[in-house]
Design goal:
The chain is mostly helical and 176 residues long. It is built from 5 helices and no strands.
Length: 176
Amino acid sequence: MALFSLIRRFLDGLYKAGGVLAALFLVAIISLIVIQMVARWTGEVFSGAPDYAGYCMAAASFFAFAYALNHGAHIRVSIVLNAMGSKRWWGEVWCFGIGSVVACYFAYYAIKTNYWSNKLNDISQGQDATPIWIPQLAMSIGSVLLAICFIDNLCRLIFTGNHAIQSNAIEEDHGA
């Protein structure tokens, strides 16, 4: 049982680390915007700032995926699942199964794209001339985190009957 607890803490920490990284990239975006504004006011040029802000936006999005999934921030088919009544568990297994397959597919191709961008020395077309595999790394890592999170929730649902998604939505009380 201690091994499961250790794995659970590790995975939850991994998802939280993705959320923290996403928040740091959001701070980086606002910092880049402010630096670019100051540069314009002083007559300096900060070439590539919009490109770097775009890379940070993509990184923030992808790193936040797994954290957001576990906190109920993604759109779910709750209306359909609630209508399934006693068959809800099967509907959730199906949804997590499909989500796991799609997330793994996306992670595979994100890693493959990252590999080929590095191998071909692909450079961004913006003023920054950044090797494109560097910003794509966040996409690869974030998509792998999302795939792990989907598989984790699927396994949890199958073996314990509950998933880890915590929703902040107010549930309707049918007992009143």
